[in-house]
Amino acid sequence: MSPGTLGGEQPVVDVVVAVHSELRPVERAVASAVTGTVPVRVTVVCHDLEPGLVEERVRDVRRSLDGGPHSMWLVCFSDGVRSPAGPFNHGLDCAQAPFVALLGSDDVLEPGAIDSWVRLQRQTGADVVVPRLRHGALGAPGAPPGPGPAVPTPPARPLRSRRLDLVRDRLAYRSAPLGLLRRETVERLGLTMASGMTVGEDTWFGLGLWSGADVVAYDRRGPAYVIGADAADRVTFATKPVAVELACVHDAVARPALADLPRAARRAVATKLTRINLFAAVHNRSEDHTWTARDLASLRAGAVALAGFAPGYERVLSVAERDLLDALRAPAPAGEGDVARRGAELVRLSARRRRHGTLATLRTRDLRALLAREAPLRLMTASVLTTRL
Q1: What is the CATH topology of the domain spanning 3-236?
Q2: Cys-Cys link to 113, which of 109, 205, 215, 360 (CB 3.0-4.6 A)?
Q3: How far apart are the first and last CA of the chain?
């Protein structure tokens, strides 16, 4: 089926849902996107998957849309790559509405989310509307996720909802480009998911969006985007080689659009990539992992790349974070026993970094950076306020 045969009102928002398994509750995602009054078209991209299997799942939802302002269609995309990048890019290429939104096949939108985003966009003229984000608690199979914890990103300035700034509102911490995106802005900035990446494929997309969009708004009180908890095969959550996990870091810092940012913006980006990507690669190997020289070399390469991208950014890190970063930057040991000892040391330092509230996690080495925007005290305070104000 092509977009031209759908009938009904012209969509204001094209919602792209990518699905690579007939086991995913894609009908739940689609149904959650069509609860409002703003005309929405949902494009379900069947990734390396027979569309008839997906058609079975969404048949009832499709029938419920007859005669209403919403529509949906299925498209096929095959690339043989276990990455969400390809199908999401294909879905965006199919979009024709003024605005687009991305939705995981096991995620859902709270009722009225898209109406709320569009309302805020019309009030502010935003290129991007950032939604609230929360995790869903596991419920009955196929049922909407129950109430789960809020995700405290971005840790923006208190009560700030209009004209958010990459640096002052710490937008880099919202890794995924979720919410309402003006399609012309996405095209103007040349934003696409990084093809072939199985993790972090949206890193450049998100950072390019936050740094390049003219107006970013935050729907901090509206309905949330809910991350599903029942996808056992979710690609993003599987542990992969360090080089694979950090490919998105190297990709991001090599992008001219980010490399040409002012120093403060590059430092903000590097701080996020260190805390959320580089340190996570260590944490993901904290249990029963056999460390290799290749692991250590890949971690060091990531740390060196970030240092070159934004020299001096590390001054805002806590003492515990700096100790871990120093260990990652150290030359890789040669002997097998030394590799094992270095790996064990990284695990110890990673655990110490995660003991939030201790002096080592609150204080910076350079006390002049103690109250910097990205330093732990202000960042933690802003994160708490984000879920309350």
Answers
A1: Spore Coat Polysaccharide Biosynthesis Protein SpsA; Chain A (3.90.550)
A2: 109
A3: 44
